[in-house]
Design goal:
This protein is α/β, with parallel strands linked by helices. It has a single domain (2-222), classed as Nucleoside phosphorylase domain (Rossmann fold), CATH 3.40.50.1580. It contains 6 helices and 10 strands, in the order βαβββαβββαβαβαβα.
Length: 227
């Protein structure tokens, strides 16, 4: 079995790299891919960069060149649901692009022609993640090429899509995987929550979160059934 892991930021990639032995390193179109092995499962992982285009580009390169069976995307996100607090883990049951808008052509906000509004993560991968990340919350993750800082925008996205959190990559990775028939899962750690007490700085959070995400990802991999 071979899986692909797309990390949003360098700190998380490095934390995961510390947990497995890297056997190979590839550079394709200025992207560095690392290949290692754990529990007889090959892992190819990469940092995609910020935004939907960078994420989609990286996903397609990964699929075309590495022939992976599953793709995971992990990183941080801003909480937009009042039930969340800093440090919570969200398993993306569904992904939506909150900034996709072709409503003048009788589509709903977020609805992508020939794809739909919500893209479902793989049910098997969700079950494995729930088993390994016992305190994680499951729900909708919203993505867009907007760094959401205004509380009114957070509330609008939360209400419109019933989304738990918001980030800039996951739904585009989901769309590429959907179109390429590759099972996927997006997992996010909450870095901040609007109108809530954010008790740690972002820098402190990233350092801790990177280790938590890396260990959680390793546990998920070790619970996958080998093909």
């Amino acid at each position: 079995m071979k899986i692909g892991i797309i990390f949003a930021i360098e700190e998380e990639l490095n934390a995961f790299k510390d947990l497995i032995k890297v056997n190979k390193e590839y550079t394709i179109f200025d992207l560095t891919f690392y290949e290692g092995e754990t529990n007889n499962i090959t892992c190819v992982f990469v940092q995609c960069g910020v935004g939907k285009v960078n994420a989609a580009r990286t996903t397609q390169i990964l699929i075309d060149n590495m022939k992976v069976d599953y793709i995971f995307n992990v990183g941080v996100a801003g909480g937009i649901d009042e039930s969340l607090k800093v440090g919570d883990i969200v398993i993306g049951e569904k992904l939506v692009q909150h900034d996709f808008d072709v409503t003048p052509f009788d589509y709903k906000k977020g609805q992508i022609p020939n794809v739909g509004t919500f893209i479902d993560s793989d049910e098997y991968l969700i079950k494995i993640a729930e088993k390994c990340l016992k305190k994680a919350k499951k729900g909708v993750i919203a993505s867009g090429d907007i760094f959401v800082t205004e509380e009114w925008m957070s509330k609008k996205i939360n209400k419109k899509f019933n989304a738990l959190c918001c980030e800039m990559e996951g739904a585009s990775i989901a769309q590429v995987c959907f179109l390429s028939h590759i099972p996927f899962l997006v997992i996010r750690s909450i870095s901040d929550v609007p109108n809530n007490d954010n008790v740690v700085t972002y820098e402190e959070f990233v350092e801790h979160s990177s280790v938590v995400i890396a260990n959680g990802m390793l546990k998920i991999i070790n619970n996958l059934e080998r093909m």
